[in-house]
Amino acid sequence: NDGSGCSGSATSSITVYATPVVTLGTFGSMCINGTAFMLTGGAPSGGIYSGPGVANGSFDPSTAGVGTHTIQYNYTDGSGCSASATSAIIVNATPVVTLGTFSAVCSNASTFSLTGGSPSGGIYSGNGVASGNFNPAAAGAATHTIQYSYTDGNGCSSSASASITVN
After folding, report:
1. Which residues contact 150 (CB under 8 A, 6 or more apart)?
2. I need a surface site. Which of 1, 62, 91, 99 has the fewest CB within 10 A?
3. What residues in the chain have per-residue pLDDT under 70?
């Protein structure tokens, strides 16, 4: 009421929109020397991924670095309401692999077991190499590269190489 005994009222409506339900699948783990890949699994589609190592929707493990990284998926619906979800990506280091030096051998020397690769459990390869053994006669007179490759429990691989001369 005003002072004259008159009264009035006004009404207005407001629309309340629901917050979108946003989900993001799991990523698991990968090696730091793994290939960059496009992130997927965010729903509804049309959102934006962000986090360490993320650029234009792609994740690069070498940019993110070793460790556990949180990836966020942000989605905004047509009403301007937004929500997000997160998931972790684990980036594992590659193993440190070394290979000692080899002494020169004669081409008529007997086949011998290759050693010096660390950590143990890796695989030797190269010209004249079979099942971890080196056959100088099969390799032939020259300087050959022996490679030692190792894969750790995370599935990450690395290698080292050394030369051996066959006289």
Report:
1. 95, 97, 117, 119, 121, 122, 123, 157, 158, 159
2. 1
3. 1-3
